[in-house]
């Protein structure tokens, strides 16, 4: 039931009324839509401990899933990719689908990997969000040309504030 609810919520976020509203400003896109799709993907893929299935051992596919998730998130953090998603409906759909799939892949792979890997991933994600937020805040010109300079500054401040929250969330 949880999986179906997460998929339904992700579909609602991807439909034009919600997607148009969330993609209209940089801060809504980066601080609401993308984290929501990542969390919904994780909820769709998450298996509770002791939920009837025996714990499985680590597999090499876990590292492949982790590499996919990190690669997808890194690709969409590139300003040119974000501009493309803001201007193209197919690219926007690819953005939403890949971020949802990244959350799904993380929820399936991280529980089976060494404790050091999720910790390292959390520290790296927080550092990247902080660095990107500082760049958005202090760069004198537009980085993402699909949005305004004021939206870029608000998104940058939000990313700097969200970084410690993201680290705690990933650590938990």
Structural write-up:
It is a single chain. By secondary structure, the chain is an all-alpha fold. The longest helix is centred in the last third of the chain and has 23 residues. The two termini are 23 Å apart.
Helix content: over 70%
Sheet with the most strands, sense and barrel status: none
DSSP E strands, number: 0
Strand content: under 5%
- What is the CA–CA distance across the termini? 23 Å
Unreliable stretches (pLDDT < 50, length at least 5) are: none
Determine the mean pLDDT. 90
The general outline is: globular
- Rg estimate, integer Å: 16 Å
What oligomeric state do these chains adopt?
Answer: single chain
The helix count comes to: 8
- Structural class, from secondary structure content? mainly alpha
| Run of helices and strands | HHHHHHHH
Write the layout of secondary structure elements.
Blueprint: H1 2-14, H2 16-23, H3 26-45, H4 60-77, H5 79-87, H6 89-109, H7 116-138, H8 149-171
Concise summary:
By secondary structure, the protein is mostly helical.
Features:
single chain; mainly alpha
């Amino acid at each position: 039931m949880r999986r179906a609810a997460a998929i339904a919520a992700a579909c609602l976020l991807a439909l034009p009324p919600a997607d148009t509203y969330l993609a209209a400003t940089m801060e809504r896109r980066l601080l609401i839509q993308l984290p929501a799709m990542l969390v919904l993907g994780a909820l769709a893929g998450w298996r509770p401990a002791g939920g009837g299935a025996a714990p499985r051992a680590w597999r090499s596919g876990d590292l492949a899933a982790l590499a996919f998730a990190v690669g997808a998130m890194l690709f969409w953090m590139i300003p040119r990719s974000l501009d493309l998603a803001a201007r193209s409906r197919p690219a926007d759909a690819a953005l939403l689908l890949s971020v949802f799939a990244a959350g799904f892949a993380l929820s399936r792979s991280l529980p089976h990997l060494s404790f050091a890997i999720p910790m390292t991933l959390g520290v790296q994600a927080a550092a990247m969000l902080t660095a990107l937020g500082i760049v958005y805040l202090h760069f004198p010109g537009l980085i993402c040309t699909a949005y305004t300079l004021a939206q870029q500054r608000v998104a940058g401040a939000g990313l700097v504030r969200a970084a410690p929250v993201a680290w705690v969330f990933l650590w938990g």
